[in-house]
Amino acid sequence: MKTLLTMMLALATTLATAAQDKPMTTSYKIDNAASTVGWAAKKVVGGHNGNVSIKDGTITLTGEIITAGEINVDMSSITVADIPATDEYNAKLVGHLKSPDFFNIEKFPGAKLVIKSSEKTKTGLKIKGDLTFVGKTNAIEFDAVVSNVKGVYTAKSNVVLDRTKWDLKYGSTDFFKGLGDKAINNEFTLAINLSAKK
């Protein structure tokens, strides 16, 4: 009987220790007001940049690793920052970006990043997931600098994407010839600054 009690006590101790060693899983809600997504695209001559707004989102951490998440972006909120808002070309460019030539906002009003996993790097995390916009989904991965201070989790990253993988072909020399200085680079950059709270 004493042997059985000893074994049960040892098992309970082992299970308690294992539970303590297991990283905690915590969910955070994206703080829309404190989060930004900037975009930048280059042409043969010049380029443009602006912003889009995050609609909502969550991220889940197990210990220090992001294990899941979803971030939804309101594509109808797209703006142009490098042209004064009072300049009529600002409205023309925003309208063109919303048109079927680019993001086709009427048909595809939202974009979504689904985070599937991450792993530690020297500077933060390498995040892997699926990015969906204009009705097409592609797997992406990118590095992020992260911090967790007093319950506020932040992640910052510059994500370089090849737009043609999402069938955004307008102005691409891979698909159209004779564009001259009207050609637009295939790659564009998203500057993501996320802030999330429990």
Characterise this structure.
The protein has 198 residues and is of the alpha+beta class. The protein is built from two helices and nine strands. Strands 1, 2, 3, 4, 5, 6, 7, 8 and 9 form a nine-stranded antiparallel β-sheet that branches. The longest helix has 20 residues, at 2-21. It is elongated and about 85 Å long. Residues 14-19 have low confidence and may be disordered.
CATH homolog superfamily: Lipid/polyisoprenoid-binding, YceI-like
The CATH architecture assignment turns out to be Beta Barrel
CATH structural class? Mainly Beta
- What is the β-strand count? 9
- Based on secondary structure, the structural category is alpha+beta
Q: Sketch the major β-sheet.
A: 9 strands, antiparallel
Which percent range fits the helix content? 10-25%
Quickly count the helices. 2
What is the string of SSEs from the N terminus onward? HEEEEHEEEEE
Unreliable runs, pLDDT <50, ≥5 residues? Answer: 14-19
- For the termini, the CA-CA separation is 48 Å
Rg, Å, rounded = 23 Å
Range of strand content: over 45%
Mean pLDDT, all residues: 91
Shape: elongated
Number of domains: 1
The CATH topology is given as Lipocalin
Quick tags:
nine-stranded antiparallel beta sheet; alpha+beta; Lipocalin
What topology emerges from the helices and strands here?
Elements: H1 2-21, E1 25-30, E2 36-43, E3 47-62, E4 65-80, H2 88-98, E5 110-120, E6 125-133, E7 136-149, E8 152-162, E9 184-197
Antiparallel strand pairs: 1-3, 1-9, 2-3, 2-9, 3-4, 4-5, 5-6, 6-7, 7-8, 8-9
